[in-house]
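Morning, I've got a small favour to ask if you have a moment. You're getting the sequence in one-letter code plus the fold written as tokens. Thanks so much in advance, here it is:

===
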Amino acid sequence: MPERVHHRFDDGVHPVNELTFTSAPTPRAASFAVEKASKKRKRERPEIISSIGYSGVKQPAPNPDTRSPLPLGESKGADSVPPTAQHRVDEVVNQPTRPTLERKLKSTTAHSNRSTLLSAKPGPSHIHASLKAKANALDGLRKALPIWSHAEQIRQGLRSKDVVLLVGETGSGKSTQVPQFLVDEPWCRLQSVELSEASNIVKVNVGGCIAITEPRRVAAITLARRVAEEIGTPLGSSSPASKVGYSVRFDNSTSPSTRIKFLTEGMLLQEMLRDPWLREYSAVVVDEVHERGVNVDL
């Protein structure tokens, strides 16, 4: 409260006496002073304000009546003094902030999700079962192709002759079914033979794989993926037990167990430069032979 000063003058010339009266602060004034000092300390300590709420939003102060219970044997009477703002700020600072709780929740959720993914990760047996199930589903479509009824005729023709010319409409199944007709033939399996080189007898492995040439790389990759699905085996280098692969420029996806190999005409010519006899293959299927080109003629 402002000070009240009274001046008394004698005859309006000289001040005779100067009295000063200062009023005592009331309880309400004392409480206002404490609140004002607390707000000043908050401005000086910005970290307290940031820890009160998340994203700068101040949370409402707890109710003094329900914030902390009274000790046993004591009752709330007229002499009890309500907690000041500084006490409430200290209690809020000691409590865990919302970002801390969110980090704990995220770490717990990530750990549980990782455990779920590890437990749900399919093993080799599950992958093999799914591939076989998909192959069984495609078996009906294979049998519906026009070329399916001529499978035994094609096998018998290649047993007695070295070259067979097969003519059929587009979509009849020539590119995908003929390699599967021949892969289980006895003469298409890996064989060990003796060759004489420079008056020496050398044992070499011959055959065991079927080559199917395509004029375009997109056709080679697409047909390899389709045949792998129909047989029920992984594609290319994705598994050591893969029976179907492909080889195009800058991309060779095969495995040691590959039995059917789709490749472009240029890649087959590159292999002929390294091995003119193509001892790796038991049969070579030249697809789209009606598209006359230099590579096909060679």
